[in-house]
Amino acid sequence: MAQLPIITAPDPRLKIKARPVPAVDDKIRRLMDDMLDTMYGAIGVGLAAPQVGQSSRVIVLDVAREGEKPQPLKLANPEIIWHSEELMTGNEGCLSLPEHYAEVTRPAAIRLRYLDYQNEIREMEASGLLGMCLQHEIDHLDGILFVDHISALKRGMILRKLAKAKRSRAPATAA
Ligand code: NI
């Protein structure tokens, strides 16, 4: 397994709708394994393929708390086929928007269809932290970031700070 570089906002690659994978084959399994490695290395609870520059509908998650048994999830082509009317609000962050957090409101429960690591079609229901993270990662596959769910004022503030941080990190280029 290998750790991949994580793309941070603002970056046009984070705004593109990712392509469905034709099947979960060895290449996709390797991407899933590398993404999980990358996510654990960055101390994240979820990661979507566009965040490592891959336009593929692949996400990985592990919402187990510190000290709990790991619960890695590797999903391809996840699709929300039902969501509750009831909403929940949680504090979200993102490895592509480092050090920024905001309250985001989403459906409290969802039902999902996806392809698993063995290329089998599966369904699962999720709520709470897992439901929130799944919706956040699936958003990434459609080019949506958590800041797209908050006020334009707050979004602008976060993205400006990230752009500034990025400029100060960029190596000087010869004109
Ligand atoms: Ni994210």
Q: How would you describe what is shown here?
A:
The chain is α+β, with helices and mostly antiparallel strands and 175 residues long. It has a single domain, classed as Peptide Deformylase (Alpha-Beta Complex), CATH 3.90.45.10. Helices cover 27% and strands 25% of the residues. It has three helices and seven strands, in the order αβββββββαα. A five-stranded antiparallel beta sheet has the order 1-2-3-6-7. β6 (109-115) and β7 (121-127) form a beta hairpin. The termini are far apart. The mean pLDDT is 95. The structure holds nickel (II) ion. The site of nickel (II) ion (NI) has 5 residues, from α2. The site of nickel (II) ion has 5 residues, from α2.
Task: Please tag this protein with its features.
175 residues, 27% helix, single chain, Peptide Deformylase, 3 helices, 5-stranded antiparallel sheet, binds nickel (II) ion, alpha+beta
Please provide the count of β strands.
7
Q: CATH superfamily name? A: Peptide deformylase
Order of helices and strands: HEEEEEEEHH
Largest sheet: 5 strands, antiparallel
Shape: globular
Overall helicity: 25-40%
CATH domain fold name: Peptide Deformylase
Stretches where pLDDT falls below 50 for ≥5 residues? none
As for the number of domains, it is: 1
Rg for CA atoms: 16 Å
Instruction: List the quaternary state of the chains.
Output: single chain
Give the names of the bound compounds: nickel (II) ion
What is the level 1 CATH name? Alpha Beta
State the secondary-structure class: alpha+beta
- Strand content bin: 25-35%
Contiguous helical run count: 3
CATH architecture: Alpha-Beta Complex
The overall pLDDT, averaged over residues, is: 95
